[in-house]
Amino acid sequence: MNGPFAYQAKPDEASKPVAAAADARVTPMMAQYTEIKLAHPNCLLFYRMGDFYELFFEDAEIASRTLGIVLTKRGKHLGEDIPMCGVPVEKAEDYLQRLIAAGHRVAVCEQTEDPAEAKKRGAKSVVARGVVRLVTPGTITEESLLDPARANLLVAVARRRVGDQAFVYGLAAIDISTGRFTVAEVEAGQLAAELARLDPRELLVPDALLDDPELASLWREIRTSITPMARDGLDAASADRRLKDYFGVASLDAFGAFTRTEVAAAALVLGYVDRTQLGSRPPLSPPTREAVGGTLLIDAATRANLELTRTLSGERGGSLLAAVDRTLTSAGGRLLAERLAGPSTDLAVIRARHDAVSYLVTRAFLREGLRSRLRAAPDMARALSRLTLGRGGPRDLAALRDGLSVAGVIAELLAEKDGEEGGGLPAAADRPEELARAAKALAGLAPELAHDLQGALADDLPLLKRDGGFVRAGHLPALDEARLLQADSRRFIAALQARYVGETGCRTLKVKHNNVLGYFVEVPQAAGEDFLKPPLNELFVHRQTMAGTMRFSTVELGELEAKIASASDRAVRLELAVFDELVGSVVAHAEPIKRAADALGLIDVTAGLADLAADLGWCRPEVDDSLAFRIEGGRHPVVEAALKASGGTFVANDCDLSAPGGGVGAVTLITGPNMAGKSTYLRQNALIVVLAQMGAFVPARAARIGIVDRLFSRVGAADDLARGRSTFMVEMIETAAILNQAGPRSLVILDEIGRGTATFDGLSIAWAAVEHLEAVNRSRALFATHYHELTALADRLAHVSNATMRVTDWHGDVVFLHEVVPGAADRSYGIQVAKLAGLPAPVIARAREVLDQLEKTERETPVAALIDDLPLFAATLKEVAPPKASAVAGPDRLREALAGIEPDEMTPREALEALYRLKKAAADGA
Fold first, then answer.
1. How far apart are CA 790 and CA 803, in angstroms?
2. Yes or no: domain 325-446+589-616 corresponds to CATH 1.10.1420.10
3. Rounded to an integer, what distance in angstroms lies between the CA atom of residue 85 and that of residue 91?
4. Does 3.40.1170.10 match the CATH number of domain 6-135?
5. Contacts of 919 (CB under 8 A, 6+ apart)
6. CA 292 to chain CA mean position, Å
7. Diameter of the chain measured on Cα atoms
8. Are 732 and 324 contacting, i.e. CB atoms less than 8 angstroms apart?
9. 679 among the known binding-site residues?
10. Is it true that the peptide bond before 535 is cis, omega within 30 degrees of 0?
11. How far is CA 864 from the centre of its chain?
């Protein structure tokens, strides 16, 4: 079945109850249910019955398993029991959250008339019901269902052919909860990386793309809810018209120039929003186009390896985001995550962000002032969205009230001069562009709306508007009167009775109440005779004569009775009218409110990054358009934070991947034992790039980074048994992606390539990969390996160098110093590490015996001596290895070189390598 929810379709799902709708044995209620279910066959139907949402048939079975609630039965259907479960209406959001998290979609079916009206139509009539909303992962807005610090993106994909074989893809991303709307067009090779960056909660994919065999692996790997869309999509003209109609414009040119693919994706996602929101339109901003190549391209595997926003186990704690997040608002948390997921490649944008962070780093007083106010800033964007969609409540209005107040205070802070800072700092007018724009968005923001909200809303607010009690006392006199009648009717009756006693002179007059007459005036029969005569009979109307008493009513008493009887309903109606009026004012100011919400998020991110830099001593990186890469005293932000928490100290290390003379990147081969810190060193340099280009300061003494356009990382691997892939196969697939896509502006991080196969196979692959990186990709790269034979490449390839993790051997035990120094490791210390891990002593002893024998064999027939004879390496070296600039060496230089050698101080491997260097120098000199 095609359509927006076809992913759940089953051949006979819902067909059984639907087909029976015309059966005489079907009750009117079940007939209504099956008709509604037929219209939404691939959603769980929340069918409102009084104070519960009921689910029937297969929906009930699914919900009971997912929610852990009891599955019961309700009557018979075609002779069989009807499975049923239900959830209370007041707890519905909690259950919805769990169903959405499990990947389900829910159609919420409400009663659309008063049950009393249904009874008037006859005993067999059922209350009218209808679906008022479709709840899907990408369209939720409820606060309890959303992650405050994560965007809730709904993304649509469209495709267009641009050649005989080539395609381009359009992406449209909407966050209904905030109004964000962006579009982009990417090449086929960038699609997976862009989807990984966006990390949508729900992905809309046309059937034709889902059925494309070349994209099958992509859809399998995406860990999000995929919703198939009908094959017969919109044509170009219809797609263009849908966008123009939604935003009420005659042309899309006012929003920028969009490609046909971007418009198609945007129309697809808007159509889905219309369908799921049943005509309610969220306050979407006009679509903005994200430039191709405007963000650092990071594929899904690299994101997972580097643990940017989540660890490999899926947790936020332990990720880079958790380590650097000092935001205080939901909007700030979302913006920080967005910047971290997609660091910029625009030099102007990066420098503007660094300017803003630097400004607040040097102004502690202003920074702390901003952060102290931001703590009180609510999530205005999501509150605005809920109110616009008709799902908001009094607390959403209060969020805007408080947000507008915070915005005004922060605008004043940013407008003040820096007299408190001292030191001759620039005035407010000289503030960085980002902060200046934010201050402008906050200044003078809807003062009349802020005043109205402040005056109308009470301090303590209910969750739901129907509960009443959210309008401040004194705001509306009629409401105050209704509340007074509701709360103190006895006092009003006593006051009226006292007045009647005074006017008639009858001290025995009482105002009473019963279910027949309602409120009435009762006097002794003797006094009552006077009430039947003028002038009292003009006020009092005789109702009943009893033994010894007479009863009367008055127009005033009747009006008071009506007011008392309807006081509660009247109070609620008056409050709802105030609510609607305030919502109307909010919607009228939607655009400036959204700009202010974005501004608060930007200020929060900037102040948080500045606080982080000032607290931890991070430096401002120098980012330019060169191919430089020099880090002095770099540190891993996540590992350092963990060590600091436990009282440890992180050992800082330098990294220089700037090739001599520039022009291309350099490859550094890193050797050393396991546990020495190679992987940490690899990752920290990649994370420094991410931080620098997202606009943050970096954990280093100094850093100069030429813009990186693509970041690749292959650190560690796991098998993929479900798809028949071994660990080594996964490793090779990831390595192939790197070698096929990396370019001169890329940064490549590789760890232990080739270790999952036989020694010579792995060594051959690793050797060839290094040569390819240096000669073909020409990327800046860090390559960690246990193949010490690879270190010989530093003498053969112009842009390859060696570095090693410094360790020491103390009485047979290895001591890790975690320092990176030039040179190559002489051994791997694997047995020492195994001993630390707790392998049995006999195993360790036997391993030493085997190692001694193997090293003896190595000395007799060293692998390094055979490398030049291997056809793969010999042929490759002749093709790609550039000659060394200082290759000429005559007899005098040989003697000088020999004089500098101290054989007694060299290891066997170092002596062997020195011999090869002398032999090569002699050949070059000849």
1. 12
2. yes
3. 14
4. yes
5. none
6. 21
7. 146
8. no
9. yes
10. yes
11. 50
138 annotated to a ligand binding site: no
Tens digits of residue pLDDT in 270-307 = 999 988 888 788 889 999 998 878 899 998 889 988 99
678 is in an annotated binding site: yes
The confidence score (pLDDT) of residue 824 equals 81
Interatomic CA distance for residues 34 and 28, integer angstroms: 10
Q: Which long-range contacts (CB under 8 A, 24 or more apart) does 491-495 make?
A: 492/560, 492/564, 493/519, 493/560
Q: Which residues of 741-753 are buried (b: 16+ CB within 10 A; e: fewer)?
A: bbeebbbbbbbbb
Q: Residues spanned by CATH 1.10.1420.10 within the chain? A: 325-446+589-616, 479-577
Token output for 274: 């219309």
Q: State how far the Cα of 889 lies from the Cα of 644, in Å rounded to an integer.
A: 52
- As assigned by CATH, the class of the 622-882 domain is alpha beta
Ranges 101-110, 444-453, 609-618, 855-864, most confident: 609-618
Residues of each domain in the chain carrying CATH 3.40.50.300: 622-882
Strands 44-49 and 52-56, bridge-based pairing: antiparallel
Domain 144-292, classified CATH 3.30.420.110, yes or no: yes
Element (H, E) at 130: strand 129-135
**CATH code, residues 479-577:** 1.10.1420.10
Considering only CA atoms, give the Rg of the chain.
37
DSSP 7-32: GG--TTTTHHHHHGGG-TTS-HHHHH
User: Can you read off the two tokens belonging to residue 911?
Assistant: 């002596």
- Provide the b/e sequence for 155-185 (b: ≥16 CB within 10 Å): bbbbbbeeeeeebbbbbbbbbbbbbbbbbbb
Query: 232-250 b/e with 16+ CB inside 10 Å = b?
Result: ebbeeeebbebbeebbeee
Task: Please answer whether residues 279 and 247 qualify as being in contact, where contact means their C-beta atoms are separated by less than 8 angstroms.
Answer: no
If we measure between CA atoms, which residue out of 752, 614, 766, 634 comes closest to residue 689?
634
Report whether 518 belongs to an annotated binding site: no
Q: What is the pLDDT of residue 873?
A: 44
Tokens of 180: 């964000």
pTM of the full structure: 0.81
- Residues 6 or more apart in contact with residue 274 via CB below 8 angstroms: 281
CATH 3.30.420.110 in the chain: give the residue spans. 144-292
Query: What whole-number distance in Å separates Cα of residue 600 and Cα of residue 370?
Result: 10
Q: Are strands 44-49 and 106-111 parallel, antiparallel or unpaired?
A: parallel
